[in-house]
Every structure is written in structure tokens, then in C-alpha cells.
Amino acid sequence: MALKKAEKDAVVTEVSDLLKSSKMTVVAKYQGTTVKALQTLRRDARSNGTKVKVVKNRLVIKAVQANDTLKDADTSSLQGMLLYAFNADDEVAPAQILSTFAKKNPTLEFVGALTGEGKFIGSDDVKALADLPSKNELIAQVVATLLSPVHDVTNALSGNLHALLDGVEAKATA
Predict the structure, then answer these.
(1) I need a labelling partner for 83 at 20 to 30 A (CA). Which of 25, 52, 64, 137 fits?
(2) Same domain, 117 and 144
């Protein structure tokens, strides 16, 4: 069923708002993917704050052109049956969700992504982003690295303290 002008304008406004708030919008081809699989993708994506939408490319291009930051972005790759994954909190999350989904459903393939800075990056860069650990995992790795010397010092001191106490106890009982 064709959308009326007012409905199209509402979709353009919604997509424009999503683009404005999204740190990265990942674009992927979904031709050949079943509706049931796409519903599963949407459900899984919601768990980490990612919103997946299937929108006519023409309407997305209008939304991109209406956005001051994105208006100079290259939209020539936005052709065919595409879905868009938006996330306002994490740049990597949409790529990771789609990458995980694509492992089970090879019909999904990356086209690229629109960054929050207004650049369009290619599919190879999106795949590289998808392989990165999540933001929380990176923070945990940094904290563990920073705490490593502290743990080493406390372990060394506690080891020497135990040896000292054992020596004092041996002298006291002799």
C-alpha cells in the first residue's frame, strides 16, 4: 500500500530524528531474508538499544539531506532493498548486532554506515567495527590493565609478609 504525502513526511521526520541522535547508522542489504528472521533481528537489536528499520531509500536520502551534519554524506550506495540500524548510545552496537545476525543468515550483507560526523564509511570498515569488543568490554580491559600493577604489588607484599610471619613463628617455637 502506497504511503500518502503526510505519511511520507512523518517517516522522513522520524528517520531524520533517528539519524540526528544516532552515533552510527549501519546500512545492510536484506534481500532474501525471511520476515521471521527480520523480526528476530529487531527483537535482538532492541536488547542493546539498537533500532532496526526498513525504509524506502528515497525517504532516507531526504532525511539525510534535511540533516545539517549529514547533508554532504555520499548517499550513492543507498540502492536496493536496505535496512537501517540506528543506535544513540554506542557506535559499534549496530554493526555487531547485524554481524552476529549475518553469521546465521548469510543473505544479510553490509553496505556501509553513516557516522555521526556525517561521513559514509564502506562495508569493510563496518565489518572491522563489528569485530571490536563492545564499549563495556573495552572499559573493563582498560581497568584490568590499570589495576594489574596494583595487584602485582599487593601479591608480592602479601607473599613476603607470609614468609616473614612464618619465620617469626618458627623462631618463637624454637
Answers:
(1) 137
(2) no
